[in-house]
Each structure stands twice: as structure tokens, then as C-alpha cells.
Design brief:
This protein is α/β, with parallel strands linked by helices and 306 residues long. Helix content is 46%, strand content 13%. The structure holds iron/sulfur cluster.
Length: 306
Amino acid sequence: MAELKNEFSWSKSRHETFDECRRKYFYQYYGSWGGWSATAPEPARQLYRLKQIKNLHLEIGTAVHTTIEEILREIRSGRTPSPTAARERVRTLLNQSWSESRGERWRDEPKRYSCLFEHYYGPMPESERIDELRAKAFGCIDRFFALRWYPLIRESRPEDFLSVEDLDSFDLGGVRVFVKPDFALRRDGLHYLFDWKTGKATERDALQLACYAAFAGRKWGVAPDGIRIVIAYLGDAVADERFISAPEIQEALKSINASVERMRSLLVDVASNAARVEDFPQLDDLRVCARCVFREACRPEHSFAR
Ligand code: SF4
């Protein structure tokens, strides 16, 4: 098999990691590269293992997304999803990740088995807090079924489904821009791209939505007025359908190009995508480090409260 090459690319999560902490960005996209191999150097193996850690909020987001993905696949295959069964599925997924994490099955296969931040670094949440989080996940599923677009999805034919959680990309000046819309549907002459969120709205969401519109235009050859982006904050019961204009898409592409330039400016060699750890400074704010999955490797000298 040909050896995998660490190609430079852009994604919204890469952009956010770069903005949050340069060192974290290095660990995530360079230091951990190859760490999946048993023969990789120990630092890369450690970083690869650490980057798989998720906190409970992220784990809830994953369980909700997985369950909605399964619901959509059921609809596409002509079955009628049950909200009760969907809640049970979320419960099962959360229980599974909790017991995998507790049992430390991730030590041998960090990509396959969950490792929760709360188990690894602490502190462990109170049981009331865990109940609250579980209830939040159930609420997200209930609100998905209550979305005003649900009947539209439910009544769609299999051929109307364009993608369900598919990782895809488009080219921007020679850089691969990765996108993963949660769901895409073609109905009544319009292309709908859906994004489910279990967290709060942020200013950064606008860039992601414009990115989806740019992707849909390239992938399906559709003009901006034929695209609708639906963003559903399932935790807050807020959902909105947006049209992204051609100038807004251009603005987003400009901002992606600027982000690419900032990332590349720290590389020692752009052509080979080579980076050195010393060019990616650590943050000074230890409150951010306290929540960081890489803190064991990055700040071994600091004892964080558990
Ligand atoms: S521990 Fe702090 S400095 Fe190190 S990668 Fe994480 S956020 Fe950045």
C-alpha cells in the first residue's frame, strides 16, 4: 500500500483549532501524524491517543449525530423511525462510550474506543450533571422529530437524499477544503443542506454555512438562489433556514484563503507541508490548557486541579 502523505487541507475545525492555540494545532495536524502505527515514535503515538479524547459535551453531540444519521438512513430505506427507539439508541450509545472509557479499552485501540476527558483528566461530574446531560441528548432527539422540515424529509424519495454525514471536499486554489454537511436533500427544485448542533450558536457558524453553500454550488452545479441551508440548534430549540448570497459565498472563500495563508506562514516548507513544533507557540492562559486534551504532553510540569 502506498504510504499516506500528510497533505495540507482546510476545514472549519482546523481553522478553529489554529485560532484557539497554535501548539494544539501542531499536535492535532502534525505531531500526531502516523501515531496510529505501532511502530511510530512514542511522542506521535501519545499525541494520536490524546487527540481522540472527547469531553461529555462532545460525546453527546456524537451520539445525537449518529442517531439522527441512522434515522435518516431508515427513512431513505422506506422505514418509519420511532422517537422512542431513537431515545433508546442515544442512551445505548452514551452508556457504551461511558463503559468503554471506564474500561480503558482505548489503550490498545484509541480510535475505536471512547476515552472521556472526565475519566482521563477529571473532574468527574456529579451524577445529577450526568442526568442533565443525558436529558439534553434526549431533548435534541425530540426536537429533531419536531423540526418543521421533518415532514419534508419524511416524505422524500430515496433519490432525493443527496448525502448523509458524508465527508466531501472541494478545491480552492489548489487546497482541499473539507466539508461534512450532516444531511443534503434535493426537493422541489431546491438543494437543502442541514446542520444539527447540540451546542450554542457562535459567530463562526456563518463561515461554515457559507462553506456549505460554496460546496453545494460546485458539487451539484446549483446557483446560490437554489440552495437553502438549515441550521438547527437542537439543544436550544432554535432552527433557521437561510439563503446565502453569491457575495457572501465570495466573502467566505476570501476568508478561507486568508486562513490558509496564516496556517501556511508557520510551515518550514509549504510544498512538503513540513512543520516544526517550536514554530507553534503554547498559550499562556492555563485556564484554556486545563480543558485541552493535549495537556499531558504539552504541560507535563503543571499539575492541574482534578
Ligand atoms: S495544553 Fe495549552 S498550550 Fe498546550 S496545546 Fe493545549 S491549549 Fe495549547
